Amino acid sequence: MANEQAPRVQRLDATLANQIAAGEVVERPASILKELLENSLDAGATRITIHLEGGGMDLLSVEDDGVGILAEDLPLALERHATSKVATWEDLQAIQTMGFRGEALPAIASVSRLELLSRARSQNQAARLQVTGGMAAALEPAARAPGTTVRVADLFFNVPARRKFLRSPAAELSRNQKVLRQIALANFPVAFQLIQNGRSLVQFPTATDAESRAARVAAIMGEGFLANALYIEQEDHGLSLSGWLGLPTYNRARGDEQYFYVNGRPVRDPVVSHALRAAYNDVLFQDRHPLYALYLELPPGRVDVNVHPAKAEVRFRDSREIHDFLFHTLRRVIAEQGGAQPRVTVP
Ligand code: ADP
Ligand code: MG
C-alpha cells in the first residue's frame, strides 16, 4: 500500500512563494516600473527619476524624494504581505493608496538582484539592503538624501525560462515609456524623468496649473489631440468626471490613446469601455477610436480595487449608475460641441 500513501502537505519556502506571486505581478520590466512608480507616489514623492539599461532588463531603478523607509523596516518591506498601507479590513474598504497588497517588492526581489536604499525623512542616515534572488544580505549604513531608490538588476537571472519571454531592449523600453506616460498623465504635480543608458529620453516637469497640465497632456498625447479636445468637468451624486475628451472628428484606427483613471488609478473596465463606446456611437465609425484622458473620482467605498493582482481592474459597487453617469455626461458634451471644431483625422 506504500505507493497509495497520500502526498504530504508542505509549506512553500518564502522565496518560492514569492516567485509564484511574481508570475502575477512581474511579467516584464514595465510591470516592475509600474509597481515602483506606485510605491514612490504612495510615499508622497514630488520628483521621480527612472534609470534604464537594456530596456530595463539589465537595470531598472526608480529614485524618489518621498517619505522613505525606516532602516529597521527595510527587511520587512521585502517580506510578503508586509505593508505600511493597510492594517484593518476597514482600511481595505477605503484604499487611498496605489498599493496595498504588500507583494510587489518581495516578488521583484525573488527574480532579480534588488537593492533597496532609503532614508526616512526623520532620520539623518540612509540604509541599504541587497537581495539576490530573494536572499537578503545584511543591512548596511549608506548615504542619501531623504527618499528611496529601488534598483532592480538582471531581471529573471535565476528564472531563465521567464527571461525568454522578454523582447528586445527597444521593445521593452517602449513599454516602460508607455507605463510612464500612463502614470504621468494622472500625477501632474510630480516631476518625472526617464534616463536610458545615460541619456535623458523623457522629462515631465512639475505641472501645477492649467497651462502646464495642458502642456503635459500635449507632450504625451500630441499637440493635435490638445487642439482637438474639450476639457470637461462634471459632478453628480458624489461622482466626478473631468479631463480631456477628444472630438469625434479626431480619431484613430487603434484605441491606444485612451486613458481612463478611477481615483487616480489607470484601469481597464468593461463598464467604462461600454459607456464610452456608446457615447461616441452615433458620431464615430465602428472601426475608429476616440482619444481621451478622463478622470473619474468617487468615494473609495464605491469601488473595489482589490480584484486583480496588478490592480489593473476594479469593480464598481453600483456599476449601472456609473455607466449611466459616464454615458450621459459624455454624450451631452459630444452632442453640444456640434462639430464646430476643426475636422482632422489622424492615422
Ligand atoms: P505595497 O505597496 O502593497 O504596500 P510593496 O511590496 O510594493 O507593497 O512595498 C512594501 C512596503 O515598502 C510599502 O508598504 C512601503 O511601506 C515600503 N515602500 C516601498 N517602496 C517605497 C518607497 N519608494 N518609498 C517609501 N516606502 C516604500
Ligand atoms: Mg507597492
From TrEMBL:
Keywords, comma-separated and alphabetical: Endonuclease, Hydrolase, Nuclease
Top-level taxonomic group: Bacteria
Protein's name in the database: DNA mismatch repair endonuclease MutL
Organism annotation: Acidithiobacillus ferruginosus
Gene responsible for this protein: mutL
